[in-house]
Amino acid sequence: MSSSTITEVPAAAGIVDPDLPRGGPPTDPLRVAAPARSRSAGRVGRALLPWLSPLALLVLWQALSSLGVLQESTLASPVTIAGTVRDLVTQGLFGSTLQQNTLVSAQRALLGFAIGAALAIVLALPAGLSAAGALVIDPPMQMLRMLPHLGLIPLFILWMGLGEQPKIALVAFGSVFPLYLNLVAGIRGVDRKIAEAATSMRLSRWQRIRYVVLPGAMPHAMTGLRQSLGVAWLTLIVAEQIAADRGIGKMIMDAREFLMNDVIVVGLVVYMLLGLLTDALVRLVERRVLAWRA
Q1: Which of 43, 104, 187, 231 is least surrounded, with the fewest CB atoms within 10 Å of its CB?
Q2: Are 249 and 109 in contact (CB under 8 A)?
Q3: By C-alpha distance, which of 274, 281, 279, 235 is closest to 98?
Q4: pLDDT of 56-115, one tens digit each?
Q5: How do the domains of the chain map onto residue ranges?
Q6: Contact residues for 53 (Cβ-Cβ < 8 A; gap 6+)
Q7: How do residues 217-243 score in pLDDT, each as one tens digit?
Q8: CATH domain 79-293 topology
């Protein structure tokens, strides 16, 4: 059978439409746009899904308050709390506005966290990279980790007074251990085969640490950072309620004295939002730093 016969059979059978372009059947713009619209709607839906349950809780909270099940003296309604936020932002409480107190608390938490994270990295690297470093550093770190760090408040006050130092030191002390433990575990958990391959390539010790050990430990380090930030905010809540002159904790203590539960709730919500914000920032950095993991 000749090649001309082969090309003529589909046309004769009605398989090939002579009106169609050679590049294939014409594309329908509605059919092409539909998947794109559905994908966009799907992304929006996935972004909104995490907010459904908190919104439902707020609606239930407001409904119980409106029906009188929750008394304002016990727990203020969301509408009342929203008005309190407006008053705290515009007028403040006892001489300080909400944004001023938030800035002071954020400075304390981030400074203490930075000190704790720096100490954790300095201690974790020798403890994870060498057996001698582990023998010298790890036992005292494990013993200190078992101390209830919030119980050190009286001792820190005796050592440092009632200023900013004991609050920052307490936050730093609590932030050290999650990052230290995760970073040491990440360094020791690097795949031995990869390390042996780096050795066979005649990489120096520093090059092995730079290109093999540290990237391999980075997932554990990012997890430790998130945990340390959580501990930092939890520690700050307690530290700021002890002889503080400014900050969210001071605002909460003043509100407790005057039975202003709406202000207390606002302070707790601010702590929560600050914690979520810093955690989101760490997750953003994690996605960029660990892009290779995908």
Answers
A1: 43
A2: no
A3: 274
A4: 888 998 898 888 888 888 888 889 999 999 999 988 887 788 999 999 999 999 999 999
A5: 79-293
A6: none
A7: 888 999 999 999 999 999 998 888 777
A8: MetI-like fold (1.10.3720)
